[in-house]
Predict the 3D structure of the following.
Amino acid sequence: MHRDKRRASRPAGSSTRRQKVYAAWIAGATLVMLGTGLLMWFTHLTPIQWRTSATFVHDWLALTIGIVLAGHIGMALGDPEARRGLRTGEVSEEWAEREHPLWRP
């Protein structure tokens, strides 16, 4: 059986808008952490002002990532049905209708 590739056949994607924003933010934060980390690691390549600025950005972004990650884990702990769905790939019909009404059975 082949998958129907028309857009009308899939009214809802597998990810919510919040998940996509979170993934994009984490990807961007990872690149910034890598860049600032490299500036701090290779001290002979840049002037002291750049390294000081990189340290400032790196430290505050690390703190922000930690807070956002703690919130992400807190949300996951608050929804056991979603965690079960991540582990097994199945959720109850009631949960799917409540959380993702555009999903098809």
Remarks:
- The chain has a mean pLDDT of 86.
- The CA atoms of residues 29 and 65 lie 8 Å apart.
- The chain has four helices and no strands.
- Residues 48-77 form the longest helix (30 residues).
